[in-house]
Amino acid sequence: MSVGIIMLVHTALDRAEQVARHWAAAGCSVVIHVDGNVGRKTNAAFQKSLSDVADIQFCKRHKCEWGTWGIVAAAQSAAEQILANFENVRHVYLSSGSCLPLRPVDELIEYLDSRPRTDFIESATTADVPWTVGGLDQERFTMRFPFSWKRHRYLFDKYVELQRFVGWKRKIPNGLVPHMGSQWWCLTRQTLSAILEDPERDTYDTYFSKVWIPDESYFQTLARQYSTNIESRSLTLSKFDFQGKPHIFYDDHLQLLRRSDCFVARKIWPRAERLYSAFLTDAAGAMKKTEPNPAKIDRIFAKAVERRTRGRPGLYMQSRFPNQDWENGVTSGRYSVFEGFSDLFEDFEPWLAKATGSKVHGHLFHKEYVEFSGKQTAINGALSDSAAHRDYNPNAFLTNLIWNTRGERQCFQYGPSDNQKVGWTLARDPNAQISVISGAWAVPLFKSNRNFAEIRKIAAKMQQIESKHLNVLRSPHAKARIRIWTMAEFIEAPMEPLQTIIDEIGQNALRRLAEVPRMTDLKGFGQFLQNLKNQGMHPYLMGDFPVYSEDDLAPNSQPRKPYLVQ
Length: 566
Hints:
CATH class of the largest domain: Alpha Beta
Number of helices: 23
Shape: elongated
Mean pLDDT: 86
Helix content: 25-40%
Number of domains: 2
Strand order of the largest sheet: 3-2-1-4-9
Strand content: 5-15%
Number of strands: 19
């Protein structure tokens, strides 16, 4: 007895010819279905190229499109022809033009001869399969799908919504229990002929013609009606990604395919010369005889799916960005953001760099330019100080900065005068340490020599921006380590919060700070805030500042000394 091979071909006809000759040379009977979408001249040339092989035939053509009935109709036509014209066929193996035999065909024939009444078809109920992608499992059997998912996606989705809304449900004929599985099966003559000659076939065909992706359910369901011995697995190695798209095998997958011990693999890249030359060979160059075991390489595919869906922390593909919250970490390392500190303290950045050993930048998101440390014009990874380049994608600028400087803690200043598009990224990044002195942006305005009407206008705008930013930082979706002080609260005892911040950065061995940076002179700041109130602008983010400070009441007193640890 022999094995009959059905080949569903729609592209790369030269490779399909090569594989068909390989099957026929080993004594297999081959029936080829050429997709009806292939041009007549191309099809005629393909048939002529194989006309010299007696055991290769061509069947009636159907137009095939993913997810539609045409693929099942093609398999039916080819199966009917192979059963009618080749009486010595005991098993029929369904394959595609992109399938490649991995082991000598004689081994497949021998393997099936030792299991003459076994059907190899993946067949499981919808409740038992985890691989359905697209939100349609049981619904694919109770709804109608007259529209192509690929060509008429809008109509497809709207018709599904309509059926759900109205509550339409199709009746499954004759009490069938729908099963699903890989379309690449190997059935015995008895089972396959029983399916094709069933008196109720017209009923079943009418029903399954409106099922979504019927090639994964038609034979899988009906085989359960007639088979006496089903092994629910496919002899063809086929792997799918998280979107349900098949993995394509290339030349560098040679050893991976050898390890699978499977008889056939799909989907092979048509230009994988090394694979075709390695496997379409004689028995001496083929793999050892063993039970097919695709589970051997499942771990590798699981890692590939994880790498594609999660990636590496803070590293993004050039071709696409992941969906929000799908990324494996917003950034690749920890960093610190200081808001209001450089406004309140003099020479804060050099002091922080000395105290922590970190790289301390100015306002990286300044609207006019990027304030890199040391006034550099470019740093690691060719990141320039151009605001235009940065603002093309502020989030990518941040992730690139952290990725390119891995191993070195980055610190930078941020405030309401900076580009605010990066605010949510900072807030939801667990790697971010954000320290905020709210209202400190008013100090530079207090020190400025602007007209008060202009100061009032700027202050109102800055307060509005910072208020929205603080709402983001206080959002339940924020994942960064965030500390917020009002300016009045902070200047009462600056030592403790600064010590906490330095300890969290943790670049150097933990030690108590001997001195905080020099705080700017705030004499008259309370009156400045009162003047803003008098002009109709209420500065509430600074906290409760007295109109007159102790320094205001004692103008001849000595300047305040730096804070020291006792």
